[in-house]
Amino acid sequence: RGKKDSCDSKETEEQGVWTDVRLPAGVRPLHYAINLEPNLSTFNVTGDVLIDLNVSVRTKYVLVHVRNLNVTHTSVLRQTGSGNAQWTELEISRTFNYSKNDFYIVEMKSELSAGIVRLRMNWTSVLSKSLVGFYRSEYQPEGSTEKRWLATTQWILRTHAQL
Fold first, then answer.
1. What are phi and psi of 59, to 5 degrees?
2. Is the per-residue pLDDT at 163 higher than 90?
3. CA 61 to chain centre
4. pTM given for the model
5. Which end of the chain has fewer CB atoms within 10 angstroms, the N or the C?
6. In DSSP terms, which residues pair with 29 in a beta bridge?
7. What percent of the chain has pLDDT over 90?
8. Residues 6+ apart with CB under 8 A from 141
């Protein structure tokens, strides 16, 4: 049921909640679980994230900030039950990017009602050469002529913490 491919359409929508630079107030993150797997030989990164969201206003859209990511799979799940919660996958109508605001938009088949939902995304990217986001840096150990690489971040600003 989740969406496989990076995006169903690109930059096709010029009207919608995604044209506002701020994320909609009716869907707020509660918890993030991020997995990053950088390859320091190829500088490619694979990753996935689970974001638990509190939906307080009915909506068909879930928006997240992304930059320079190829989203390969997306799913949205609804929490059912309490305590040791079960999750039921919901139907997605389409996904698309709105790069003017660095948004990745998930359009649901049906409106989400109030409650907890979980957004699951898998992606690929390349470690940046700049000092923004998740990037690569080189160093040379003392007494060595060999150059080594590391993956790092300096998420000082909120906008740098984008996936």
1. -160, 155
2. no
3. 14
4. 0.82
5. N
6. 53
7. 66
8. 148
